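Hi C.,

You asked whether I'd gotten around to modeling the 155-residue construct. I have! Everything is below, sequence then structure, no commentary in between.
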Amino acid sequence: AIVPGGTGVGTIIVLEQSNGRMQAFDTGGNPVPYFASSTSCTAALKDGTNATYLDIAVEYTGFIYVLSFQNISRGNCQFNLDIYNPDGSWLCRTTGFNAGKISLDMWRNIYALNYTPYIGSSTTNASSEPTISQWVPLNSSSTFTPTPTATAKAS
């Protein structure tokens, strides 16, 4: 994900699956101190290496959104959307965010690529098809002030 504005414009943030962290690079591919008040090139992810990371997006004030899932039991996955502060510290999590990719707009609406059940002419031929869903934060004021709610749980 490319940081769109503010401090660190043009910084590229990469998810490192095997290290369970995010790392910041400049446009030349060199590590750049972006996290922890610009003193570290990396920031640990909440679930470390215990999750599969699917996507990352950065909104215009620098908050970082990370989509992941964990295998809870055979065939049962828990999808999570974590939000990190601009300094890389974990802020909050929404569980049950079943998606494969995410994108943000400037109003913090999230557009997610997911799958919806599609029932054909008979219920025995049920399958799924790709769809796009929109997630709208409950607090959509111009200043991000997270509060625990039913859709954005703080832990």
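If it helps when you're writing up: Residues 140-155 have pLDDT under 50 and may be disordered.

Thanks,
B.
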